[in-house]
Amino acid sequence: MKVVQFTIPVSRESTIVVQEEKLPHYYPHLHRHREVQIEWVVEGSGILVAGNYMQRFESGDIYIIGANQSHIFKNDESYFNPDEPRQIHSVSIFFDPNYLSQNILSLPEMANIRKFVHGVHNGFQIPEEAREAVQKIMSEIIQYKESQRVAAFIKLLYQFSTTRDLKPLATSNSEQVISEVEGIRMDRIFQYLVTNYKRHISLAEISEIANLTPQAFCRYFKKHTDKTFVSFLNEVRINEACKIILSGKFDSFSDICYQTGFDHVTNFNRVFKKTTGMSPGEYQKGFRDI
């Protein structure tokens, strides 16, 4: 299972590439491309990893992925169950920020938009209050062709540049210089963790998967994620715990604890609160009250 660093074919005759897709699941490997990606998750759920950012994504979410930012929209396990067919529906817009800056964005009237485009290295999540306006413009882009499509795209960039409270994804852009070999290794590590998080994973075990000594693995993992191996694994587990809580399909929080790979309820409660800012009970109550 090799990670593929692919390049979206944005030609000189096409300023942007627009894709609307309905598939069984998202591409399940860590990857990157030189284009900025605007992603509207019309339907789907799972975990988004972008640089050192990790959080659940749900239907309706909209993200901006930076150019060359390693990322993966990893769908929930149920999307890979042939006995439980599901699908994702997504709208993706890709553009080369360098090509755009040398052409349309070189106009003096585009200064604010140009500044925004130059600042998306680490990616953003669009706040909930701005989603409807963004979804409307993205729907127009799907329908339009040629000059009308480009005009709507500039309108979309203007919307982003004037939107307050954009939520940054990654907190560091150091991983953007990751090599192809390192990308393949990081994908192998990530795939192993999301497949085996329900059981104990020792440092020696994951180091062997990465073909590194434990000491070298700790330095390597921290360098590329800004997180320790344990904190990253705990985030995977807590994201899964949040999904179970929201589904309502559980008997007790202790059941969730053991289902997600924690050995002790006390540790589960402590890590859950550290990660989400709430206890499992508070988290459940918060969503019941919405």
UniProtKB/TrEMBL annotation:
Keywords: DNA-binding, Transcription, Transcription regulation. InterPro entries: Homeodomain-like_sf, HTH_AraC, HTH_AraC-typ_CS, RmlC-like_jellyroll, RmlC_Cupin_sf. The keyword DNA-binding applies. Residues 187-286 form the HTH araC/xylS-type domain. The keyword Transmembrane does not apply. Coiled coil: none annotated. It comes from the Bacteria. SUPFAM superfamilies: Homeodomain-like, RmlC-like cupins. This is AraC family transcriptional regulator. It comes from Dyadobacter beijingensis. The lineage of its organism: Bacteria, Pseudomonadati, Bacteroidota, Cytophagia, Cytophagales.
